Amino acid sequence: MRADFNLFITLCLFANVRLTTVGVVAQSRNTATVTVPVNVGVVLDMDSLVGKIGMSCINMALSDFYATHSHYKTKLVLHSKDSAGDVVAAAAAALDLIRNAEVQAIIGPRSSMQATFVISLGNKSQVPIVPFSATSPSLASLNSPYFFRAAQSDSFQVNAISAIVEAFGWREAVPIYVDNQFGETLIPSLTAALQEINIRVPCMSVIPESATDDRIAKELYKLMNMETRVFIVHATMPLGPRIFAKAEEIGMMSEGYAWIMTESMSTLWRSIDSSAINSFQGVLGVRSYVPKSKELENFTVRWKRKFQRDNPSITNAEMNSFGLWAYDATFALAMAVERAGTADLRFNEPNISGSGVSTDLQTLGVSRNGPRLIQELSNIKFRGLSGDFHFQNGQLESSVCQIVNINGNGERSVGFWTSKCGLVKDLCSKNTSTNSTSKPTLGPIIWPGDTSLVPKGWKIPTDGKKLKIGVPVDGFVEFVEVIWDSNTNKVKSVQGYSIDIFEAVMAKMPYPVPFEFVPFVTPERKAAGSYNDLVAQVYNRNYDAVVGDITIVANRSLIVDFTLPYTESGVSMLVPIRDKKKKNAWVFLQPLTSDLWITSGCFFVFIGFVVWILEHRINTDFRGPPAHQVGTSFWFSFSTMVFAQREKVVSNLARFVVIIWCFVVLILTQSYTASLASLLTVQQLQPTVTDINELLKRRESIGLLNGSFVEGILLGLKFDKSQLRYYGSPEELHELFVKGSANGGISAALEEIPYIKLFLSKYCGKFTTVEPTFNTDGFGFVFPKGSPLVADISRGILNVTQGDEMEHIQNKWFKSDVKCPDFDPVVSSTSLGLESFWGLFLIAGVASISALIVFASMFLYEHRHVLLQFPPETSMRRKVVVMSRIFDQKDRSSHTFKNPDPREASSHYSVHSISAEGSSSSTDCPPSPSISPNQTDSPDISPSSVEAC
C-alpha cells in the first residue's frame, strides 16, 4: 500500500508539472509576433547586366531590411519573372503576377518600353509599378497614380549637357541616338535645351539597335565629312560601345573631337569588356551623382562578393546607380507595405457582363490594398544608399549631375551641375546662389587624342575639297568682276572690291581655309538668277558661301547667316541736280528774309525816334517845323547804312545809341553784300526731284540695279512694274539719266549707298541724293545657318576695316582721277534770316531803351519843381501837356546854347507877353530874364507861364 501511495503521489506531481509546462508554452505562442507574407512581383530581363545587378540588390535589400526591422508584421515575398528583353513578355509576366500571385506591387520592368505596358496593367488593377531603370521622360506623361519611378528621368541631364556645350563655346552639336523609344524620347528636350542657348543642331544621327558595323561606319563617315566635331551619344548597351569602337577605328576619337555620353552609358561603361575601354578615352559622361558614405562602401564590398559568387562568368560588373536605386526602391516598398497594413490584401473579382468569352485583361482583379499602398509610398522619406529618397508626384526628387572624364581604365570627376548653381567644379552649398556673371569651370579634362587642348568644336573637312564660294556676275564690276579666258571659256580670275576684302579677311584667319570662286552663271555665261537666287544656293548647299555685293536684309537672314557688314548701310534716291538760280529785277531782295527786312525797317524808325528824343532840346539840327524834324530823324537813321549822316550828335546818350546802331548796321550791310554776291555769282545746285511721291504722281520711271532687292521696296511703294528700269553698270545708269523719263530713261534711281558713292565718284557735280532713305545693314558675306566660320570671319572683317588695308582697297577701286568739289546739295534757303541777327537787334534795343530811361529820369529830376507847383486837382493830361511843352523848349543850360545868337539875346520876352490863346510870338519861348551868366540850373518857370508859352 505504501508503495502504491508513493506511486500515486509521483504520478500527480508529474501530471501537474506537465500541465504547467504546456500552459507556459501555449501562452508564449499566443504572445509571439505573427509575420504576414506580402507578395511582390519582380519583372526584369534576367539575362541582362542591369537585370542581374538589380535582382541581386533587391535580394540584399530584403535581407538587410528585415535584419534591422525584425519587429515588422509584414514581409515581402518575391515572385520574379523574366521579361527576356521583350515588351510582350514583360506585359505577360506582369499580368500573370497580378492574376495568379496577387502581388501587391511590381518592381521593374527594366526598359521604358516595357514599363509603358506594365504601368497600364498596374493602373487597371491598382497595383503600384516601381521601375528602377526605366528613365524615359515619356513615362511621366502617363499620369498614372500607380507609377513610381525609383530612378532619375533622362530629362534631368539635358540642362547639364547644354551647360557643358555652352561652357566650352561650341556652337553646334550633333546627337547620336538609338532608334527606339529610349532614344527618341530624350531628343526633343535635348535639342530644345541646346537651341535655347543658341546652340545649333545641324542634324541628328539615328542608329537602329540592331545596326551592323557597316551601317554604323556609314553613319559616322557622314558625320565626319561635316564641320561639326561635337557629338552627344544617347544609346543603350551594347550599341553604345560599338559606336565608340567604330569611331575610334575611322579616326573620330582623335584630337579636335568632343564626345559626351548620357546617363545610361555613363553608368554602365565600366561593365563592358576591357578591350573596348580604349575607344572611350577622352569622353565626357553625365550621370546622377551618388554621394559617398560608409554604408555605401560596406554594401559595395558585400555586393561584389555576393555577385561574383552568384555570377562567376561576369568578372567586370561594377555597382552603379541602377543597382542602388533597386536597393532603395525595395526598402521604400517594404516600409510602405508595413505602414499600409494587412487588413485586406485580397483582389476584387472583376465585373464581367455579357455571355461572350472574357479575355485575361477582363478577368484581371483589382487590389483592395492598392490605394493605401500608393499613399504610403508617396509619404516615404529616408536616406538611402543613392542619397535622399522621396517620391514627388511619382518621381524621384531632382538630383545632382556629375560630369566624369574617362581616361585610362577609369574615370575622374571633373565637375557637377545643379539647378541652383549651374556648372561648377565643386558642389555648392545649399545657401549658394547662381552667379550669372561667373564663368562655369570644370576640372582638368583629357580630351580625345590624349590632349588637354579644348576642341574647337568644328573643323573644315580635310578631304582635299575647297569651299565653293559663289560670286555674282551681273552688277557693278568695281565690286565683283569675273574675267573669262576666251580660249578655254573658263574663269581666268575674279576681282573687285568685295573680292579684295574677302581675301584680306581670309589671310588673317588663324587657320587655313581653302576656297575657290564659282560664278553664278548659266552655260552661256549669263547670270543664273537674282541675288536672292544666289543666296538661296547657300541654303540649298550648292555653295558653301557667297561673296559679293550682297545686302544684309531680313528675309535673306531667315535662311542664311551673314557676317558683319563691310560697307556703309542704307538705300537712298539718286537724282540729277540743276542750277535753279533766278536772275530778275527783284533779286536784290533775296539776301534777307521778309522778317529780317521788316525788323530792320522797324529798328531804323525806332533808332531815329530815340536820337530825336535825345537831341531835340540841345541840337538845332533836330529842331524846327515838325515835318523838318521827322525828315531829319529818318534821314539820320537811314543814312547810317552808308555812314553818310551829316547831322552832328551832341548828346552822350545819343552817341552811345548811334555807336551800337552803327555796329549793327555794319554787320547787316556786310552780310547783305556777301549774300547778294553769292546769289548773283554762285550756282544754286538743287535736285530735280525732292520727293519720291512726285514720281508716283507723274508716273515717271525710276531705275534700279539688276537683281537688287530694291525692286521689292519700289513695288511696296505702289510703283508699277512698267515704271522700273534696270541697269547693270554706272555707265548704263548715266545713260538712263541722260535720256530722261520721257525718252525711255529715268528721272531718279533708288539705290544702295555703296553704289551711289561709286556712281558719284564717276559723275560728280551732276547728281545728288535725297530722301527717302531706307535702312539696311550694308554688304556682308553669306554662309549657311550656324556656320562656325561666321564668327571668325566677322572678327577678320573688323580687323581689316579698322586698319590701313581698308584705305588701300578703297583707293584702288573707288578713287576717281577727277577731283570733285565738296558740296552739300541739300534743298535749303540761301536768304539770311532773323534767327541769325536777333542778338544784335536785342543789344541795340536794350541800349536805346536804357538811354531813353536815363534821359527821362534826368529830365524829370531837373524839372521836379514844376511838377511840385501843380495844384493837387490838376489832371494828368494837363501835367503831360505842360511837361511836353517844357521838353519842346531849348535847354539853355546845355553847352550848345551858352553862346546864343546876339539877335536872340537882345530880345526880351516875359511870360506875360504870351497871348491868351497860348501861342508865343516866337517859335521858342524866351528864357527868364533872371538867369545869370553863371547860373547852371534852369530858371524858375511857373506852370502858368509855361502853359501860356
From TrEMBL:
Region (Disordered) residue spans: 892-949
Lineage: superkingdom: Eukaryota
Domain Ionotropic glutamate receptor C-terminal intervals: 468-816
N-terminal signal peptide: 1-19
SUPFAM superfamilies (UniProt xref): Periplasmic binding protein-like I (SSF53822), Periplasmic binding protein-like II (SSF53850)
Keywords for the protein's UniProt record, in alphabetical order: Disulfide bond, Glycoprotein, Ion channel, Ion transport, Ligand-gated ion channel, Membrane, Receptor, Signal, Transmembrane, Transmembrane helix, Transport
Gene Ontology cellular-component annotations: membrane
InterPro entries: ANF_lig-bd_rcpt, GABAb_receptor_plant_PBP1, Glu/Gly-bd, Ionotropic_Glu_rcpt, Iontro_rcpt_C, Iontropic_Glu_rcpt_pln, Peripla_BP_I
Entry membrane topology: Multi-pass membrane protein
Segments of skewed composition (Polar residues): 907-918, 934-949
Compositionally biased residues, Basic and acidic residues: 892-906
Keyword tRNA processing: no
GO function terms (MF aspect): ligand-gated monoatomic ion channel activity
Subcellular location: Membrane
Gene3D superfamilies per the UniProt record, alphabetical: 1.10.287.70, 3.40.50.2300, Periplasmic binding protein-like II
Spans through the membrane: 596-614, 653-672, 837-861
Cysteine-cysteine disulfides: C764-C820
Pfam families referenced in this protein's UniProt entry, alphabetically: ANF_receptor, Lig_chan, Lig_chan-Glu_bd
Known function: Glutamate-gated receptor that probably acts as non-selective cation channel.
Known partners and oligomeric status: May form heteromers.
Family under the similarity heading: Belongs to the glutamate-gated ion channel (TC 1.A.10.1) family.
Protein name: Glutamate receptor
